[in-house]
Amino acid sequence: MQHRDQVVANVEAEIQHLQQVEMLYAVRKRVADLENALSQNKPARGEDIDMSDLNALIQPFSGDTGYPVTRWIDDFVKIMDTYCVSEKKRFIFAKRLLTGSARSFMIETAALTWPVLRAELIAVFDVRVTVLDVFKQLEARKKSKNESALQYFFVMCGIARQVEVATEDIIRFVVEGLGDNSGAASAMAYCESLEELRTKITIYDKIKKVPVQPSKREEQPKMMKPQKTLRKNA
């Protein structure tokens, strides 16, 4: 009798295990089907957004640039709420937007839903930065030769967004990082808003693209002074 009860218990445990495996398989199959639909850039029914739209609305998250994961999640959720995207689709979209270290983490995690993925992203990548940390990043970041001043401006604004930084401090770091001591660059330090600075930087980029014309004085050939001849005394 005791042996039969043990057999029944083993069978029930096996059935429960198989049910769990079946549920996990069904979830993974739904995820695969959704990924397949998204890979073809087909908007979900009743949700007028696809991956090509999403890539234009939000930058991917890598966890390597210092951009706060909580801020990225807030931006992501706002877009998802605007388009009324379901929780299942949010998981797929978020997974597709992960790159770098975050992508490697996604491969290892067992998250199969957006709430779980969101919680795990915060647990792993929510590194608190201080104002001093951001100031050091802004001071170290300089405009490179292969980027425009406008591109550099947006990068600096992204760094500053990690914490609350005064507008005048952002403007000062941006202007100093241009590495240009000309009057055109120095004048931008007196901008009163980031919008004003962005406008002037756009103009600054255009000015820098204009080739410098040599002045008329430089174009004129130098006249050779006649050499004095020494007279011999008779």
Write the layout of secondary structure elements.
Blueprint: H1 2-39, H2 51-57, H3 69-82, H4 87-96, H5 100-108, H6 114-125, H7 131-140, H8 149-160, H9 167-178, H10 183-187, H11 194-209, H12 216-219
Helix pairs in contact: 1-4, 8-9
How would you portray this structure in words?
The structure is a single chain. The chain is mainly α and 234 residues long. The protein has two domains: 111 residues, no CATH class; 78 residues. The chain is built from twelve helices and no strands. The radius of gyration is 31 Å and the shape is elongated. The chain starts with a helix and ends in a 15-residue tail after the last helix.
Estimate the strand proportion.
under 5%
Report the strand count. Answer: 0
The structural domain count equals 2
Tally of separate helices: 12
SSE order, one letter for each helix or strand? HHHHHHHHHHHH
User: What class do helices, strands and sheet pairing give?
Assistant: mainly alpha
- For the termini, the CA-CA separation is 150 Å
Q: List the uncertain runs.
A: 42-46
Q: What is the global morphology?
A: elongated
On the 0 to 100 scale, the average pLDDT is 80
Helix content class: 55-70%
Largest sheet report? none
How much is the radius of gyration in Å? Answer: 31 Å
Outline:
Helices cover 64% and strands 0% of the residues. With 234 residues, it is mostly helical. The longest helix has 38 residues, at 2-39.
Labels describing this entry:
64% helix, mainly alpha, 2 domains, 234 residues, 12 helices
